[in-house]
Amino acid sequence: MPGVDLQSQNSFPYPASTVERAERSLVCSPFNLCLFTTMRHQSVPVGAIALDSGVKSGYTKRPLSELTCDNALDWLIQVGILRREVDGQGITDSFRLTPLGRQVVEKLQQNPKRSASLSDRLYDSLIRTFRLPF
Question: Which of 23, 40, 74, 90 is a good FRET partner for 110, with 20 to 30 A between their CA atoms?
Answer without folding.
Answer: 74
